[in-house]
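Here we describe the complex-level prediction in full. Unlike the single-chain runs in Section 2.1, the two entities below were treated as one system.
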Amino acid sequence: MTEFASPTARVSTRPAASRRDIGIKRRYAAERRFRAFGFGAIAIGLFFLAVLLWSVVSKGYTAFQQTTITLPIEFSEKVIDPKNERATDPKQLFTANYPLLVREALVKQLGLDPAKRPLVKQATDMVSASARSQLRDIVVADPTVIGKTIPVTLLADANIDSAFKGQIDLTVDEARRKVKDEQVAWMNTLAEEGVLKKSFNTGIFTFGASSRPEAAGVGVALLGSLYMMLIVLVLSLPIGVAASIYLEEFAPKNRLTDLIEVNINNLAAVPSIVYGLLGLAVFINFWGMPRSAALVGAFVLTLMTLPTIIIATRAALKAVPPSIRSAALGLGASKMQTVFHHVLPLAMPGILTGTIIGLAHALGETAPLLLIGMVAFVVDFPGSPLEPSTALPVQIYMWANEAERAFVERTSGAIIILLIFLIFMNLGAILLRRRFERRW
Amino acid sequence: MKALKFTAAALVASAAFAGVAAARDQIQVAGSSTVLPYAKIVAENFGETFPDFKTPVIESGGSSAGLKEFCKGVGEDTIDIANSSRKIKDSEVEACKAAGVTEIQEVKIGYDGIVFATDAGNADLTLKPEHLYKALAAEIVVDGKLVANPYKKWSEVDASLPDAEIAAYIPGEKHGTREVFEEKILAAGCKDSGAQDVIKAAVSDEKQQHSKCVAVRKDGMAVDIDGDYTETLARIASNKNGIGVFGLSFFENNADKLKVATVNGVVPSTETIASGEYPVSRPLFFYVKKAHIGVIPGLKEYVEFFVDDQMIGPDSPLAEYGLVAAPDAEREEIRQSFEAGNLL
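The structure predicted for the assembly as a whole is:
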């Protein structure tokens, strides 16, 4: 029997074992396939991220450099204040012919014949028209400079800037480009003399909007975005957290709260332009708040961010184990104490993550700002959130539509600034989360 | 948390109150994206020349949106000026009147040329309204009958045109530029090619005759661009055979990438547009609320500064940017009309 039994045992075990082997192989293969898909998905994601970053950075890094021309400017009294009236009429210093000072300095520097008007005009076109207000500010701040000769670093015109950075094709016919051959020759001589050079562009951070690319910056937009983010944070975090604590911990579960929950989930998916329409109708037309003000923008963005924060906060509150609540209540804590002493601290990391996601979303919005007048050309810095200002993504949008070549690099430069702003916000969130994180 | 909630509510209320209380000391302008670059230059220079006044805030968003905002009413919480790349419509004037904006001053600032351009690497292009009409209209006349546009290549339209597929990037229907394109190119081409007579024979209603003339084909050969000229430029960069519609100033800023087409044998330039030789141009305007003059600080000075020769004259920064200056007599008339307080 044993001789018989062993072959039968072999025969019977072999197919069973091989059946099991086939199953394991298939499952392993499925797992490998899934891993491959997952890896592929991440690889595609990373690839597009790399392409995006590359295209932005490769186009935008030059925006952080600006060509400048340092000229010895003679603040001659003859030009600024020919009748010596500045003591009695301070307006004289505002209306003086400052461009003439630049022209004279350039004529001297390049050794031109002042009688050849078209040639001199071409030379003065190399310096930004913002030189006028720059020189005026110097004189108004300190009228004792009149009569002295001081080296002043002036911005080069955007076309010269683009040409110096190699962004204008100088091989095409002269008539079809913005920089003329003579200007290129002067540019090269001035560069050799060290008068014209590239330096770090602080202006892109500090200037307001301008029609001259070389004098345009994201200063006003940065300040506007900062105002809005602060107000959105101050308004939406307490309101959102309070609403979700009430809904999650205190509110009775009935049809009304179900309806509210459905509505909040729907609001989170409403296109942002709808909030802009609402802001225009309620805040501007009904309450009479000023147009283009960061405060109105912040209110609109708060409305937009609230559903996101409420949903994230409720999820974070739900994730706190019921045993914590039971233990607190069992030890005699009131409902209120349970929530604020035990549940809320544990839910804090989740709430902060939700808030930061909401804020980052709000930071990148332009559509709701269009209708309340924040997609605008704003030169003056807003002293308060009630004054007209604009926002970072708006500035990117407006620069992207400009005709001048120099705005191409500035658009990408502004995107880099926006990304850095976002990275700092997320970094703050991570730090806060680390601080509040508790384990049980 | 209760206290927090309360402070938040108080903040909202106080901010709203402050909004009502604060008086506006800054001019607010909205409207056409075609006028925007010019208005920006003027606003910036205005701010530099008059240190007592703040630099005006200029919103973009299109002529229609700007005029709609303009006609919301009178008062500090409404805009002072609407930029427009077309004349205000009667319906808009009615809407303004209904909202209490009864005194509107019209200011013409000059003319804007509309050019056709293709990639810089292409051969010279000589267009006529007739060519563009035949290439882009929805229905054209073949052997005396109206048929759906059969042309696929420019060379089929006219032997002088390149042997390339028709691809035209034209302003979308929400653009003020579209109207000029329809009137000066399609309607003119419709007439020149003789199609108008056939349409007249087929349709009796005059409005329908016109809309048949300016209907653009929808089979993908003519692409509506709803964005700005930068989008048109990007389309031409990806399709070298494409022809795009641009503003003269935009073309001049990108002349190294684009080649401009002549229309009826005339090269577009500020000179040919000012003289009227180049056929496709339109006036640019802005509209001012007379009730705001004297209330909003600097408004009168801003308008006067805008219409001064140092801004809109032939050697002005606006002309340098691509605005076609109105003739001397007309500029003088514009200034006097504003001074006299003439209303629409």
